[in-house]
């Protein structure tokens, strides 16, 4: 299909769906299904077979490999996947493309309002539009990471916008107030050692950057089913990198602090605080979006503000804890 024919991603998906669909019946045995398929002119490459009931309603999907490897005497209903992801005939091509990208499917069925199977949309339709879809996905992720859902870009209601934005703005304000309290409690230490105040922005920036990197990797994994075991695995995977990043950052910043003020104790406090803060920020970058996902909330909306606010508070606490240990 020419690229110009699918340039408008907001057209109804039914315009581009393959209307000729070879579907299996849930009551067929595997033997009967294979015999039936041999008599069909399948033509194109097929990855999934869709399963319907007696009323042609979509009830499941069977990967080709599973069908070929199953016993011949069991029914199609016994081997089909019942959790179906489908698009409605009235959905746009953009909606279908986002669904395919999110689930990494090679095809998606098209159904009407009563779940009748009326077509199939293949991933190859988007081959010429791949760069466009990739850019849109990156833009969406960038907005979601700072607490703004992509739907706000298409929503003209100011009240809906405020409802989605304000909670995460309040989270940032609360985090900032806690950081202000931490600074107030350590005011005498800051006045005695001005080097600490000079390097607070550097320490916060580095820890936030590492936390954002870890959070991005976790959000990529959130397309799949998350569990506490997977989160532990992600933390273990990130820890060696966090250790290396923390060590290099702490050594560089600590050396700069030492050369600047020639105060070894203060420079050591800055370096040690940054080292531990980077490791903690890495762990938070994994656990915060993972915990939000497990709590059945959208991690792409809330993770950025919450993770960064917590990382800032923990970083300041660590910095002043090490400063008191080295300087007092």
From TrEMBL:
Compartment(s): Membrane
SMART domains membership: CBS (SM00116)
InterPro entries linked: CBS_dom, CBS_dom_sf, SLC41_membr_dom, SLC41_membr_dom_sf
Gene3D superfamilies: CBS-domain (3.10.580.10), SLC41 divalent cation transporters, integral membrane domain (1.10.357.20)
Organism domain of life: Bacteria
Pfam families hit by this protein: CBS, MgtE
Positions of transmembrane segments: 166-183, 189-207, 239-260, 266-292, 304-327
Domain CBS: start-end pairs: 17-79, 80-139
GO MF terms held by the record: monoatomic cation transmembrane transporter activity
Keyword Transmembrane helix among UniProt keywords: yes
Annotated Gene Ontology cellular component terms: membrane
Bilayer topology term: Multi-pass membrane protein
Keywords linked to the UniProt accession: CBS domain, Magnesium, Membrane, Transmembrane, Transmembrane helix, Transport
Entry-linked CDD domains: CBS_pair_Mg_transporter
Family according to the record: Belongs to the SLC41A transporter family.
PANTHER family per UniProt: MAGNESIUM TRANSPORTER MGTE (PTHR41394), SLC41A_MGTE INTEGRAL MEMBRANE DOMAIN-CONTAINING PROTEIN (PTHR41394:SF5)
Protein's name according to its UniProt entry: Magnesium transporter MgtE
Species whose genome carries this gene: candidate division GN15 bacterium
